Structure formats: structure tokens, C-alpha cells
What does this fold into?
Amino acid sequence: MLIVLDAKASIASVKQIQSFLKDHGIESQAHSDLYSQTIVAPNASKKFTISELESFEDVVRAVPITSPYKYASIQGVNAPTVIDIGSIKIGDGSLCIVGGPCAVESKEQLFNIARYVAESGVKLFRAGAYKPRTSPYAFQGLGLEGLALLEKVKKEFSLNIVTECLDNMTFDEVEEVADLIQIGARNMQNFSLLKRAGRSTKPILLKRGNSASLNEWLLAAEYILSEGNSRVILCERGIRTWSDHSRNTLDLSVIPAARKLTHLPIFVDPSHAVGRRDSVLPCARGAVAIGADGLLIETHCQPEQALSDGSQALLQSDFIDLVDQCREIHKLLQGKTTLHLGF
Amino acid sequence: MLIVLDAKASIASVKQIQSFLKDHGIESQAHSDLYSQTIVAPNASKKFTISELESFEDVVRAVPITSPYKYASIQGVNAPTVIDIGSIKIGDGSLCIVGGPCAVESKEQLFNIARYVAESGVKLFRAGAYKPRTSPYAFQGLGLEGLALLEKVKKEFSLNIVTECLDNMTFDEVEEVADLIQIGARNMQNFSLLKRAGRSTKPILLKRGNSASLNEWLLAAEYILSEGNSRVILCERGIRTWSDHSRNTLDLSVIPAARKLTHLPIFVDPSHAVGRRDSVLPCARGAVAIGADGLLIETHCQPEQALSDGSQALLQSDFIDLVDQCREIHKLLQGKTTLHLGF
Amino acid sequence: MLIVLDAKASIASVKQIQSFLKDHGIESQAHSDLYSQTIVAPNASKKFTISELESFEDVVRAVPITSPYKYASIQGVNAPTVIDIGSIKIGDGSLCIVGGPCAVESKEQLFNIARYVAESGVKLFRAGAYKPRTSPYAFQGLGLEGLALLEKVKKEFSLNIVTECLDNMTFDEVEEVADLIQIGARNMQNFSLLKRAGRSTKPILLKRGNSASLNEWLLAAEYILSEGNSRVILCERGIRTWSDHSRNTLDLSVIPAARKLTHLPIFVDPSHAVGRRDSVLPCARGAVAIGADGLLIETHCQPEQALSDGSQALLQSDFIDLVDQCREIHKLLQGKTTLHLGF
Amino acid sequence: MLIVLDAKASIASVKQIQSFLKDHGIESQAHSDLYSQTIVAPNASKKFTISELESFEDVVRAVPITSPYKYASIQGVNAPTVIDIGSIKIGDGSLCIVGGPCAVESKEQLFNIARYVAESGVKLFRAGAYKPRTSPYAFQGLGLEGLALLEKVKKEFSLNIVTECLDNMTFDEVEEVADLIQIGARNMQNFSLLKRAGRSTKPILLKRGNSASLNEWLLAAEYILSEGNSRVILCERGIRTWSDHSRNTLDLSVIPAARKLTHLPIFVDPSHAVGRRDSVLPCARGAVAIGADGLLIETHCQPEQALSDGSQALLQSDFIDLVDQCREIHKLLQGKTTLHLGF
It folds into this structure.
């Protein structure tokens, strides 16, 4: 942390801060000239927030100079993280598409969808057995019964399962079935859940909270990584802004920005971001062109009968079209110069 | 829900939606004239979201016409909810101030602060034993040891304790000590925690999520209320916007807006909202003048030594001053015409 | 407009609104059933805002049912608008790239950049002679002298000139030199300027205000179109949100949303949106893949010497690379099924 | 500006930046230790933006250390600015209330409203002759005819007139009638208009843009002040956020934040901020309690007949009630300790 003091700050103020830092085990150095006084304290950001340091008298500003996360940071890392799920590699430069409905509704629904998802060559299947719903009166998912149906899909269609875990109480049962455990946007700062995910044997798909800064998102990943689970995939799914033409605002430019800071793979979920079927294909293409490692796409055999989020689910034919177009764009861009990689 | 269809929508489209609704147990009525076609389905909002209904062909818009929450709603309620904590009444038109430090740090710190809080006539004491922190490396609270210290404060100073619960695993132990259990902004949509809170014997202080709409906030309260716990206090603590002069943007106008919709008491936490000591007093005064039922104020005997959020904690003298000024404004406004009450 | 009244609203309330509308020349029809009462008034949105109608007693909600703009709307239009600038066509399915520095600084700077822009096959050159600057003390552009230099670039390199007009006083002189007149984000609701632009003989590039909804943006275009100038290009350049990894948040999903509502061409300016050189290439690729008709790209021969916005300007080699990659993506997507076009 | 470089930055990088600064007339000093390298350049912020300085190689961050505005800044100023309008003083610790309708509609309407506004003891009357409207088809104001009617109100009721100017073309005519010229939120960065206002003989009420940071607002004021007009009043009127219970989000905490930076008086316009009649009184009370120097309140004799913004206009009786309550709160707080004043 770089602590900027008022040019007229007394030596006593400077010394007070330095001795406070020392009491907490942090070495620092002071500089001054005619116009400014600064204290450089490289490890202070690990113990104190900016506002805590700015609470001292005469402090004008505290500025982070080192990364607040260790495991999520690109610093000292030589290559992007690659995550294996079955025979699939994620983060190695390939494009990973995940398809399926919002929620598990019935065996028939699941099998109908899984069939065409598998036929399209997609290897990961998504569907929620536990659904976080804004209203206590909305459909909350089939729970254990839903997990059992996902287990059947896995065997019947050789698909890997991506499904959400909502809390620590149901973590074990989700972990048993899922090949990739999703932590949803609303739980991005559910720290107890993040710690449990950090002790999981399965990789974690960590969705960005709808008001989370990039820094907060990487710190949420750090909660998982620092507990020992190194297999984390980030997933952008739209942020909450005043812009009202789509449900959330898809923040695609977070991808190049994140590349500069982290080695973790980044997915995009255009379905939840926009919440409108007709925008999913163009946004998916944009996500691939901008450099996403993967996509989460909602598809449903009968969107108008879906128990949740039917308005954003693609029909079978549109899903196939999306998969094809995205693969073509991805193929075209292989080997192109990219300015945005930190490596 | 009022479902607006394209003026050129076919009768078949209208019939399809009506029979879909009927399959889910919802009666509806259709109207049409030269310029529009509409379907009125009063209970559809309990089963379907707006976007689900907008996913049907020819649907232009779906508009809620009834409240999506039942227990939190002012409809059919004759008086504001009043909550008793010890000898204190909350929501009866009086002003309830809660004071204390951000976190429990030590017995000495706690007693020093509790002493002047109690002397000021404040009856509720706040301090966190479990702290939700953005970084896994920041101070996470003293946990059980912190709860034990709060128990001591309670006995020594006859103060009621307000403290945060972060997860279901520690709910029982927090419930034993707390007189009012806080659910923090990051957990406003941690639905498992809300359900557990709904089965608690203690009242709940539900902070607004930093990107939660008023509707989502009331639906989070509904999760608690619908499980049987009728004692919920809402607490505005700032929302995340691009405005950068304060940590969050204190959304005080949510108070009159909420009064029109709900009978629950509403508190304001100016300390977390602004994150700057010098703005806490004016914002607290504003909150009282706008009609808040209570305030959460951070105060610390030695803010520059605080382990978290020191920059927003008031010194003893400023805290006393704030309590006095807020009480005077509150007293002045007793009995004034207020346009904003739903009652 | 569809006006929803309380189910218990009196007939008098309904009649009062209908006669008020009639006084202002608007015919309406009323419907009622057990659960709701509604008034359908198709042209009310042209005279009244939503909140004006919601101010009547017993009105629960007013909902627009027709488009508030006429000339900008896709309704009744059979094909996208195509705009000719010299030999270039914009909006016909081709990709139009505009390159150049933020500001005109000197003849040498301009010619150096124009040379490689022209060599890359780009036909439109951008540079500001008048610069809107947040601070009165920042470089405000060379003004008339800058326009004269742009005139020279036009002749020397056969490039079409895109340059910004800030106010009505300088409109004539900008109009003389520019082939495409830019109205910047800060001026999107400078209605006097929009009306003047509506009487111009030159096409207008209308940037989206940094807090403008899609609806407000199209209404700003309507100001120009309704004065008689049918040649308007929309340009997304990022919106202001709390997300802090880029200067603004590039809202790419506005493109498919706009396609559903308007026939006007849409450009994207990734340089101003992100404000970071390393994100410009990926975001430009994303914009093309999502369906933009054109791009505005900042490039500078010596970014570190630029008098404004040097941090986002691409070096020559990166600019050439961007042009090549974007053209390849655009070519690949020719003829692909797109779900998002209104036509 | 404090420029933070990578700890591994070469001496050449440091020297390059220093010589670049010197070329532009800015002296700087460099510091380095094991963990950081910094350049202190006190006046760089007057010539370069943060992102321009961050575009140099090896620069990690540029941090302002001095204020970017001179005349608007509290630095070196000993007392708040007090502005005289007729016999009224603004900014001297008194409370200034401005009342009136959104727009001039007719002589009858204006006189009816002016009568009770004057009787309430309010000395400033507001009404727009020129109205900025999102849609070209909405009522745009009576223009010159409206100004003539305001002139009549002024004489008949001895009220001072506050009215908006939209552009440079109509500035002279507005200036002749107005005692306080309003620049609206949409024009906050209409720099030509700001410069003209800076040469006016009348004081200026500068509304905050709906997406303007405090810094940008003060820089907009600086445009006026630096042209020679020292009489500027700031006016908070709500900002655009995703929070949807009110039209805009009233950002009251900007008042104490602004007090720390500027000596200019600050008003609040709760009517436009919330856009709902029932929230205006509580928000006005909040504004006074938080420390506003004045209020802009919309009132109308027949809100349901208003040609614009009727939904937020107060009835006569509610207006009188508001004036009374706000004066009582203001009186109560006279002489109270306030932490938030920069003086």
C-alpha cells in the first residue's frame, strides 16, 4: 500500500502510522519532498483495507500497489490454468460449451434436451436441481430427485454434469453427482459456501455477483483457491445497471481486463445476462470473439412450458446454430495475435 | 398479472396462454379492442416471473397488478408492525438507536465502548463476532470467543445485543446470545439462511443487499416471514452505484417508498453506507428526518486502532452528539403530518 | 398507453381520466372485470409521460403499448437504412471501420496517422478539432485550425472525415469539412444541437449518452430525424456503471436489442468505452461478432505524446491487426442466420 | 499527481516520464526504494488526465494529489460563498426555498400558484419557459411568451424568478427575466453553455448531471467560475441508478462530501429526484437535516392538469406543510455542531 499524506502533515503523524504498522508486523518506508509525503508499506493491503488506512489523521489517500490475492493472481505464474473434466480440457485455448435447461423438471424434459445437446457435440450438460429464487413462492427445484435424474442423464448420454449448489447442507449430495459445481451470482460472497467449495474434489464454476467488481470476484475465487481447490472457472453473467433493454448488462470487456490479472479460465453465460432469447446468439458470438474460454447456454425443448426462465431458453435448432457459429469464430481466431493475454 | 399482447395477435395466441395458465391452476380473462389485447390473470405473479410470461409469442409486456409478497405487504394490514426487544419497542413511532463497534476485538475494547453507549441512553449494542470479509486474508472475527464477550456486555451494561449471523452452521450459537440477529447485505439472498432465520425465536435485522431492488428486499423478508418469524426489521445501508464520493450511495428515499408497500420497521445504517466518519452525523440526521424507525451507528474508543472499518467509526463525543441531535429532530417531527405512511 | 387502475377505483376516476384525455385530443376505451380496470389510450404516449398519467388518483401503473418514436422505429419499415458517404455504404451488411487519433494536434501528427489508416484500406478518418473536456483547463482542441488540417487530410489521402461538433455556433464550419458529423455522448440530449443536426446536409453519428437508456437514445435520434435529416448512425461507446475495470462499461448487448426497435445502423467505439489499449482489440472483435455495422477506433503514431486519451490509442501495427481480424470475423459471419434482426 | 511505477521499472522509464513532463512545463521529483518507484508532479493534473499518465510504460497508477479545480475548491478559502438575490442571502446558513410549477402553462396557472407561494413566505419562484424534453413530441415550453408571463409574476408578487436556459441562442432573453438562471442536468456538460453562463451577470443554479461524479460537477462549476461569474449554486436532483422505486436516486450524502471540497452553496431538488408526490415531503426534510442550503420544490394548483411532471407536484396545502416543517427542522439545527463543514 502507498499511503499519501497531506504535504503539511507533521512528522508525528507519519511516525504514528509507521509504528501502528510495525505493531501489526508490517515494515514501511517514508518519503517526503516539498509537495508530498508518502509511506510505502508493501504488505499492508493484506491486513488493512484502504478505508482503514485512510482513517488516520493527515492521510489523503491509500493506494494498493500489490495484488490483494495470491493464488488467483497472474503474478509469478507462467501459463493459464487448464482444468480437466473427463476428457475435456478447459482453459487450454479450446472452446467449451455447456448446454441445458435452467432447471431439472422431469425425466422426459431432461432426456429430450440432453439428446440434442449430446448430438451437437457438446460435452457438458447444465440443469439446476436446486434453484435460488427471488420469491419463496416460486419453483425451488426438484432437489435430490433432480440430482438422481441428472445422474441418469450422465450415464445415458455420457455428458458431464454442471449443476448449482446453494448451501453447505446440500454440498455433499451435489458434489457426488456434479462434474462441475456451480456457485451462483447471489452466493458469490457466501463465504462459508466458498470455503466448503475450497475443500471439494470437484472443479467450481464461480459466477460473478451482479454487483461484484473484478477485484471482489477474484477475492471470492481466492477463498476457494486458498482452501486447496485449484480448479476454479470464472463465469461472467451480467451485472446490474440502470440500462433496461436487457435483464442484466453483459460486461464482456471484463474478459480482457481479467486476463491481465488472473490465470483462471473465464466463461460467459449470455442467457442469464440478457434474459431474452433473441439476444443470446449475438452475445454468445461476441463472447467467443472477445476471448471467452467457454459458454453456458440455456436451451429447452419447450421454452413456453419451462418452469423457470423460459424466455431466455433457445429452441433446439437455435442452439445447434449457436454451437456451430461459435465454433467457427473460435476456429478462425486460433493463433491470432491477441494483445490481451497476460502471458 | 396483466399480459399485454400485440394488437395483431391471433385468437389462438390468446387461447394458448389462457390454457397454459389454466393448466397451472390460474384463471384469467381476456379483453380486446381495436388497439390492444390483454389477459388479466390476478394470481399469475405467484407462479411465474414477468420474463416467463413475456416468452410467449405475441406477448408485448407482462405487468404485475398485485403484490408478489403476502406477509410483508401492507395490503390488508391496519397498523405498522411493532417489535419488542426487552423493554424497547421498535416501529411504534419512537426512534431506536443501535451503537457499537464494527467488530468484537477484546473485552477491554468492548467494555470501553459499551460504557459510553449505555450512558448515552442507547439500549442496543452492536458488534460482530463473525465478520464477512471480501478477502480471505482479512480479520474474520473472534467467533465463539466474541459471542462470549458480548454475553458479558449484556450482563454488565444491561444492553441488548445486535450481532450478525453468517451461516446456518453458526446460527444456533448466535441465536443464543443475540437479542436481534443481523443478516448482512451480502447474505440478503442466501435463501437457506433466510429460511433458518424464519424459524428463529429472535427478531431479524435484514440489511438490504447492495444491488437489491425494493421488491427483492421485501421478497427476502417474505422468506423469513413465511417461515413463521414475524419480527423482521429492514435496514438500508447504501447501494452500489457509480457515484464515488462515498463507499456506497445511501438511498434514503427508499424509506417513503417502502412505507407505501410494507408495515415492517425500517432502520438506516449511515456508517456502512458512506464509509466516512465526517458524513455519518449529517446522514443520520437526514435518515431521522426522512422517517427512519432506527439507526445503526458505528462507534469506537480508538478508531485508528480498529481491526476493521475504523474510518467510519465515530469517536465517543461525536457519537453522543449524534444521539442528541437525532433525538431532537425526532421529537420535533412527532405528530407532524406525514404524506408517506400507508396507514 | 395502457392505464391500469386499482380494482376498486370508482367509475368517476375512470371517467375523469378519459375526459382529461379527450380534452387533449386523445380517444380512449375502458375495460373492467372483477380484478382490474384498464384504459387503453393508444396515442397518449405522444403527449404524456408515464409519470404524468400515473399521477391521477387510483392509477396503479401506465404502460406504453406503442413506440414513442416514429421515424426511428422499425414499425412499418421494410429494410435497414443504408447511408452513403462517398463511395462507402453503411448499414448494408458491410463493415465500416473509422480510424484516427482522438484530437487533431498538428499537420505532422495527422498526416503520419492518416497515411497508415488509408493504407489499411479504411476509408473514414476521425479526429477532433473541437474537444469536449471535463476540465476547463484541459486541451480543448485546435478549432478552426484543426478543421483546416482535416480538410488537407481529406484531399491528400482521399479519406472521408468524421469529426465532432460541440455546439450550434460552430456547426456551420464543422459541416463544411465533415463527411460525417459526430455528436458526442455529453451532447446526446443537447436538444438545440440535435435540431440543428436535423437540418444538416451531412449524416450524423449520434453517440449514446453515458447514462442514456436505449429508449432515450432513439428519442434523441428522433429529434434529428423529425427535422428532416434521415441519415443517422447510432454509436455505442460505453455506459457509466460501478464496474471499475474499464473507464465505461461497453454495453454490447444493446446492439441486438436496438435491432428489434430501429432500422438505423449501429457503430461501436471500443476505444472510449474501455479506455485501455489492451482491451480495444478484443472488444472490437466482440462488437463485430455481435453484429455492429461499424467501428470507431483510436490510433496514434506516438500514443505517449498524445494530448488527450493516449492510453487508449492503438499503435499502427495493432491498428492494422485489428482491421484485419475484424474483417475476417465479419466475412465469416456473412449470410449466417441471425435471430436478432427485426427484418 | 503521484505516478506509481512498477518496482522493476527501469531508470529510463522514469527519466522518459520526467522529461515528457518537463517538455510540458511540469517539474517533478522521483523517489524509489526496494518496493516502489514514484514520481511526484504537483501540477500534472492540470494538463493531463489520469489515463493519459497511466498510458506510459511501467506506470501502475496515477493518483491526483491536488484538486483539479481552483475557483470551486475550498483550498485557501476562509468562508462559504454567500450569494445575494434581491434581499435574500443564499449560503449564509439560512434556508432558501424555491417553489413553483414545472412549466409555465398560462397566466392563470402561474398567478394561482405564485399567490400561495408568495403567501407562504417563499421568495423565489420557479417555472420553465423552455423545457428540455426527452421526446421531440412532448410539450417544449411556451418560450418567449412564458418569459413574459414570468416577468408579470415578478412584478405582481415581488417574487424572484428562477428559470432554465437551454442554449446559447436564448441565453440573453432568459438572462433578462431570470434572477437565478438554471442549467439543467442534461446540460451540465454543455461546455458552450457553461462558458456563456460564466459571462452572465446573473447567478447560476447548476444541476448535477444524472451520471455526474462530484468531481465532474465541480469541474462543470469551474467552467462557469473561471469565466468570471463567481455566483454558482450547486443543485443535487438525483442520479441514475438501477434502483427503481423512485425516478432517480436522491444522493443526499453528496452534500457532506461536497462541503469538504467546495465553498459553494448546495440546493436539493427532491421533486425531480423521486418523481413521486408522496416522497417529496420526507425527502425535503431529509435534505434540510443533512445540511442543504436550499430546496427546489414543484407545486401546482391542479397537478392532474399539469402539462409536464404533474405526478411529482405538491398540492397547495402540502407545499405549505413542507415549507413549515423544513423551516422548523432548519431552525432546530442552527448552531448545532456539524462535523461536515470544511470551515
